[in-house]
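Task: fold both queries, return tokens.
Query 1:
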Amino acid sequence: MKRRNVYLDGVALDAAHRGRGPYIWRFGVFQRALHGVLVVAFFLLAFTGLPLRFSCVVWAPKLMALWGGARTAGLIHRWAGGVVLACFAAYLGYAGVRLARAEDRRRLLWGPDSIILQPRDFREFWQMLRWSVGRAEKPRFARYSYREKFNYLMVFLGLGVIAATGLLLWFPELFGRFLPGVVFNVATLVHSYQVMLLAALIVAFHFFDVHLRSGKFPLDGVMFTGRATYGYMEEEHPLVAETIGDVTQQQASPRAIPDRVAPPAPRWLERASTALGLLFLALGVLLVVLGLWDALC
């Protein structure tokens, strides 16, 4: 398999391209598109919302000026919020269709491929702690590790709270017909600080786990390209790799079907995923710095 990814000192910047081949499809088009749209919408919400909420901080006027003023920033913020709500609706619809079509719904929700936290994940967490001090074998993860499930839960609940409180603040006349005024005061506080909390969690946990830990630094672009090497799957999700079979005897599937052999990503996609991944990492760090600046000053 010919390697065409961006390299640094002979090592692919994108961890999803490390290890022996061929490539394996990990994520479908819908998951990747939804992830990309949510990332962009989240950063737009954060960088337009923070200067609106903390206008007294020294960096707020400069950031506001980049958007063309408070009115423009507010419009962008609301449009980005609408995109997040649309993503939630699309995801719930996608999950509902999958659940309705599933032959074994219990397995979908509670089986080895489920994204929902289960007792097994807590056992694997404890085993991982023991492994880190040489007291146990390294846990062998299925489709999603306990870290990925926590990431999912953290973002799902965090964006859900932001979306719900944002709706209250977006349409106060509508909700004010049947809600007391104190609810909007609480929603204002929860909405603004939830963004900072979620940003801190994303950078401190999600970014570190996905991109910055040993073997992954500085980037894992599997969610951008949808594919990773078979060696990557053996390392990160060995129970899934075992079910794929003999990859040398399989034809590459042009369709993004999880666990099927995949062709290498186009060169433009590899470069774009590397550039976007590094850009989002930098924006995440900047977001936390601005939030801490406000909190400490």
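Query 1 returned. Query 2:
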Amino acid sequence: MEHKNAWRTYTKEQTEELEALSVRYRAFLDAGKTERECVKAAVRLARASGYVSLEEAVASGKTLAAGDKVYAVFMEKDIALFHIGEKPFAQGMRILGAHIDSPRLDLKPNPLYEDAELAYLDTHYYGGVKKYQWVTIPLAIHGVVAKKDGSVLEVCIGEKEDDPVVFVSDLLIHLAGEQLEKKARVVIEGENLDLLVGSCPVADGNEEGKEKGKEKDAVKANILAILKEQYGIEEEDFLSAELEIVPVGKARDCGLDRSMIMAYGQDDRVCAYTSMEALLAAGTQEYTCCCLLVDKEEIGSVGATGMQSRFFENTVAELMNCAGEYSELELRRCLSRSRMLSSDVSAAYDPLYASYFEKRNSAYFGKGMVLCKYTGSRGKSGSNDANAEYVAAVRAALEKHHVAYQTAELGKVDVGGGGTIAYISALYGMQVIDSGVAVMNMHAPMEVTSKADVYEAEKGYEAFLKEA
């Protein structure tokens, strides 16, 4: 079944809407290179749209009713936004769920060391990465350092024009004969993804630095002096830090026709942002509408902030209690009768690597949001498989609102595969299907999307909240 390229259908007004959405989306990507930063940006947008904290509502004893808008933040890494609907919670909700973590490098708990009068920070990669893609590019350090006194320092080094950057070195081509014989998986070893952060043992004009220059590991000592002076960080503070290493730079228009967006972290922040925009634009609906943005999807949705935790379930229970509708049975009914789009990206067909795709069942740039009936790998292992009736309901909602959409699988059957949070939500008995935006270079330091697909995804998520 051939799907029309959405660019061919747009009016001037729609093109202007598309470009305006792209500007807002790029700003969100620039503000949110970590899950904590994404949650902060989401809170700012929510409060500007009239949302209040669920915690505040509980503390004030407020009874929630149709039209109320609340959000809940968990451990600064998850956020759930709710627009209360007219029907009782027990009849279910309409949920847009996405993840806001992305592949990256994390600092180890004891990262700083010196070798050959060079100072390094030791890292551990997070999520599925091609390790060789992370060498020789400018990198920034984002995150937080929690101090023993309870204070938390926010860190962002490398993004300002006058900031220093860091990088992972690679072997020069002149000596790389043996390296080039290795398989790509081991061309760069995980233990070699260490950041070069210093080479000077003496701080200019700094008497303390000059003294440190006489010590063993004098370059490391100088880096510690800089960290203390400029950022208030001691070496032992790394033990209670969450410092993430991400590519430097802002999201950019891509292509001479400016039809695409190139940026770090579009898996899955492209779906997170469009889902949130759809909810913030929605009026009061029959069913309570929710946008759920979670952490840890890239490593299996585990831990307290992953989808497998009880954060969402506990938050819904609190919400229902504030509306005077909570009981354990009503909570179970609410979750099992809900409908959800697991808003996650799909692989964009790349003709340069055509042999890895099956053309009739691939996602293409410019052909709209993507529906994936199932993900998983090989024999659908680890997937949620949406039932036919639910797929039909989603199709009907999209077509009623003239949303361009396509269907896809993630590559050829036995080539690989992947998963989303869909199967976890489905454990409650709710109807779930994967839907999102096609991404090229998925999991690379810089990923690419089509502006048309971003636009159609936002429209599609709005249609789902209104009609599904």
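Both queries returned. Flag for query 2: The CA atoms of residues 107 and 123 lie 4 Å apart.
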